[in-house]
């Protein structure tokens, strides 16, 4: 049976990554590795304080599974042992990778999916003042899809500035729960004027009932308001799309089931990420081919990625080679 080891790794961010909840200059990730007889499988996760996670708590949750893994634990039983979240994601993805390496069958084949191909990813512009965001947009104007981080007060000016800087790019805006009932109509109007294609998580999770009542012309995507399939019922009439992140869902296993059920209910799919290395993005590529929006730009925001990493050509990201994952 494989042996589980857990490691904490750090990757510097190019500049800073800023959203409504704060700013970071490095990505701190937790990696689960399974090894047996020269076969190695890995999975990476990004602990997120917004969901009550820390690097220490996630690493400890993974360490608790060493005996279970040694006794033959599998990804088919993992959801019964661990709650959704970053720790389960790392172990689930490591189990997928280990099985792919052990059997010589690629992960997409194990999942019953067609082989993934290259996709266009969004590129994220951090929150800042309108002038800085216009300059950042101008520097990224060659990219076909930009994701714009917003912060609440002053967002109409930020949206307009980004559109000036990148007149031809498709835009997604992500408020990270920063809008409020008294400003949402103004912000929606600014998005419409800038021809924004998707609005992600405008209101706080748990206080987003207003979304079921307001008229809108731009689809709204749930992020913090949805983690796994258990949350789908609460989204009715409030959201038009969902952002599936493996760290929220608790791994590729649940993410695949979530995508299937969400599509059956008429939701559009966005595949997203935390800021991590290519190892965190690689399993999500199995979902990306079937998503309306792909946001797997984590490695593009780093000062350095792991080697080997995913291949990026501009905003086109290619499926992982087996040396990385799957």
Structure summarized in a few sentences:
This is Dipeptide epimerase. The chain has 326 residues and is an alpha/beta fold.
Characterization of this structure:
This protein has 326 residues and is α/β, with parallel strands linked by helices. 28% of the residues lie in helices and 23% in strands. It folds into two domains: 3-110, Enolase-like, N-terminal domain (Enolase-like, domain 1); 119-317, TIM Barrel, CATH 3.20.20. It contains eleven helices and 14 strands. The protein has an eight-stranded parallel β-sheet. Strands 1-2-3 form a three-stranded antiparallel β-sheet. Helix 5 (130-139) links the parallel strand 5 and strand 6 (145-149). Helix 1 (55-63) packs across helix 3, helix 5 (130-139) runs parallel beside helix 6 and helix 6 (155-165) runs parallel beside helix 7 (184-193). The chain starts with a strand and ends in a 9-residue tail after the last strand. The mean pLDDT is 95.
């Amino acid at each position: 049976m494989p042996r589980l080891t857990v490691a904490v790794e750090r990757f510097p961010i190019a500049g800073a990554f800023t959203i409504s909840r704060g700013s970071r200059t490095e990505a701190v990730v937790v990696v689960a590795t399974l090894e047996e007889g020269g076969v190695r499988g890995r999975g990476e996760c990004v602990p997120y304080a917004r969901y009550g996670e820390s690097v220490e708590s996630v690493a400890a949750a993974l360490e608790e599974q060493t005996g279970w893994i040694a006794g033959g634990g599998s990804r088919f039983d993992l959801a019964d042992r661990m709650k959704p979240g970053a720790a389960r994601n790392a172990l689930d993805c490591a189990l997928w990778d280990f099985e792919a390496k052990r059997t010589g069958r690629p992960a997409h084949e194990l999942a019953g999916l067609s082989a993934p191909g290259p996709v266009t990813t969004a590129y994220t512009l951090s929150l800042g003042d309108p002038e800085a965001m216009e300059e950042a947009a101008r520097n990224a104007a060659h990219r076909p899809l930009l994701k714009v981080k917003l912060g609440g007060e002053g967002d109409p000016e930020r949206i307009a500035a980004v559109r000036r800087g990148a007149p031809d790019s498709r835009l997604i805006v992500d408020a990270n729960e920063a809008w409020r009932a008294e400003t949402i109509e103004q912000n929606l109007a600014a998005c419409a004027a800038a021809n924004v294609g998707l609005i992600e998580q405008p209101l706080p999770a748990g206080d987003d009932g207003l979304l079921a009542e307001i008229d809108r012309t731009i689809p709204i995507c749930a992020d913090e308001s949805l983690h796994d399939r258990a949350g789908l019922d609460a989204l009715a009439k409030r959201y038009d799309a969902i952002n599936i992140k493996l760290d929220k869902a608790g791994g590729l296993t649940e993410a695949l089931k979530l995508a299937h059920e969400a599509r059956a209910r008429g939701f559009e799919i966005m595949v997203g990420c935390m800021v991590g290395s290519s190892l965190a993005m690689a399993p999500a590529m199995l979902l990306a081919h079937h998503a309306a929006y792909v946001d797997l730009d984590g490695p593009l925001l780093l000062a350095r990625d792991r080697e080997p990493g995913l291949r990026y050509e501009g905003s086109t990201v290619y499926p992982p080679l087996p040396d990385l994952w799957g």
